[in-house]
Amino acid sequence: MRESMLSELRGKIGEAYRVTLPSLFTSQIFGLFGGTFLGKYFETVRLRFPGLLVVLPGIMGLRGNVFGSMASRFSTMLYLGELEPSLGDRRILKEIVLRMVLSLIPVFLLWAIGVLTGIKKNAFDVLLIVITSTILVSFILGYFTSFVTIFAFRRGTDPDSVAAPLVASMGDFLTVPSLVLFILLIERSPWAFKAFNYVTIAFFLFVTALSRVRLEEFSELRQVFVTITALALLSTVSGSILARFSGIIQASVILSFIYPSLLSSFGNYGSIIAAKTSTKLHLGEIESFLCPKAFTDVIALFTTAPVIGLTKILIGGALMTLITGNPIPRSAYLVVLTYPFMVLFIMLYSYTLSYFLFQRSIDPDHVAIPLISNNSDIFGTIYVVLMARLMVGA
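^ thats the sequence. predicted structure below, dont judge the formating
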């Protein structure tokens, strides 16, 4: 029995390095690209547009959840023959418009919460930034999601196995740079920014009319809307923490660069464990909470965490040095030492949540993954604040 478990664990470790690690590393590169924009302009955002810090974690998670569910829906429609494997199918534009609207409402609520909690500086400009960014990024991400799903299906690959992580990574890749670019546009030409907003809103109305979306089609997505809105509102916890401790995070420098990548990787590790646990539970392979077989995936993925943590500091630090001229501080290696154990905590939390949801007849596939992604943002933001305090001696 022991030899069998060790053999299975060796196989899982091999799979983790062969299959999972490359996807985690790719996601990390996307996150670090967005983090470069955040790190370079962190002070500008913190001092002039603090409301963006409140909505940032929510927007990042929102886009992954909204378009991840769209990828899953398209995959099902393709297998059922309800969707042509072509970007020209009218249902694609219709679904993208639906997701754009679904994204705009939670974004507005996030902004309103920020204002109600006292973050009113340049509040109207922040609202225009998040609305315009949501429309444009949603349109780009919608067609990217459609392309990835259809391309995988036409190649004979299961879209469910590749679309969700790629969509989440692209969401991270687009979110922060788009917000920063609009900030720069405001500073250089406020009139050009307002004109661009008017054009973007007109574009949104045009594609909405072109898609011929009907009111009853919105009601079909009511459950998705309720879920993503609730999670977006919950993300104000991490957004409020980020805004409150933004000064100390900026003082650490490197953490402002790797913040998006840290949150993304915690969510990825948690989601992978939730998905694997859900599959094992449905197949009856987990007989009890402390079933040894259930933890082989956790142990296998834990072995990849030091690699991700070290490369996160090395690559993020190199980008920071290139942008700011500051060398990687020695204290940054606190992240290298503690990151694997934070990943372990997230994975054990994900396993526990998935297990007990299943015991209560709630399918983890529908609830656990988006909830874990959201909770990982909260845990990750708290982790970043703690690391910042240790690094700057506050």
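The chain has a mean pLDDT of 84.
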